[in-house]
Design brief:
Helix content is 70%, strand content 0%. The radius of gyration is 18 Å and the shape is elongated. It starts with 14 loop residues before the first helix and ends with a helix. It has one domain. The longest helix has 30 residues. By secondary structure, it is mainly α.
Length: 76
């Protein structure tokens, strides 16, 4: 019997699934069904690591955009 046929066997979530869940939750568009699935199947450490990486990337992106705008708008 495969994992798909036996719902009592927990399946690990893929890294892509964890990233999509973290991204959706950062923007506040996570469905309640997916939220419940994350709590049922997810591993806390993978969500923490992906969440930290996503947060750092977001901060660096905003910082980079600000640096670009400041350098373009400064008179020479």
């Amino acid at each position: 019997m495969s994992d798909e046929e036996n719902p009592s066997t927990p399946r690990k979530q893929s890294l892509g699934s964890v990233f999509r869940s973290v991204s959706a939750s950062m923007f506040g568009v996570q469905s309640s069904k997916k939220h419940a699935e994350d709590f049922g199947k997810g591993n806390v450490s993978s969500y923490v690591i992906v969440g930290l990486v996503a947060t750092i990337l977001f901060i660096l992106t905003v910082w980079g955009i600000v640096q670009l705008v400041v350098s373009v708008t400064q008179p020479s």
